């Protein structure tokens, strides 16, 4: 049975914090939920399961990218507000 990982787009899906992903990679030298090279050498690989795992990782990457884009948009808006405030303060000083 094929378990397509579209569940990552559900509102209640807990996307791992990137710091947690980094810590896992630092400790294990591979992505969470992805078999290591040693595991694949020892047990082989189920290509269908691997494809679904990779699809899940691509979908998670998309969510991370969208989240970062939102944060960048908010940061740009804040920078614009700071620039306006600085301009107003500069005018008041004159």
Written account of the structure:
This protein has 94 residues and is mostly helical. The protein has helices at 18-28, 37-43, 47-93. The chain is elongated, with a radius of gyration of 21 Å.
**Strand composition percent:** under 5%
Which structural class best describes the helix and strand composition?
mainly alpha
Rounded to the nearest angstrom, the radius of gyration is 21 Å
In terms of per-residue confidence, which ranges show pLDDT below 50 for 5 or more consecutive residues?
none
**N- to C-terminal distance:** 72 Å
- Binned, the helix content reads 55-70%
In round numbers, the mean pLDDT is: 95
Globular, elongated, flat, extended or rod-shaped: what is the shape?
A: elongated
Largest sheet: none
- Total beta strand runs: 0
**SSE topology string:** HHH
> How many helix segments?
3
């Amino acid at each position: 049975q094929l378990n397509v990982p579209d569940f990552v787009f559900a509102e209640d899906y807990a996307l791992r914090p990137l710091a947690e992903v980094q810590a896992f990679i630092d400790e294990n030298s591979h992505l969470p939920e992805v078999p290591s090279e040693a595991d694949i050498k020892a047990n082989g690989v189920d290509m269908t399961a691997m494809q679904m795992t990779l699809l899940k990782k691509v979908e998670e990457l998309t969510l991370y990218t969208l989240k970062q884009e939102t944060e960048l948009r908010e940061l740009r808006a804040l920078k614009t507000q700071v620039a306006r405030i600085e301009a107003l303060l500069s005018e008041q000083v004159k």
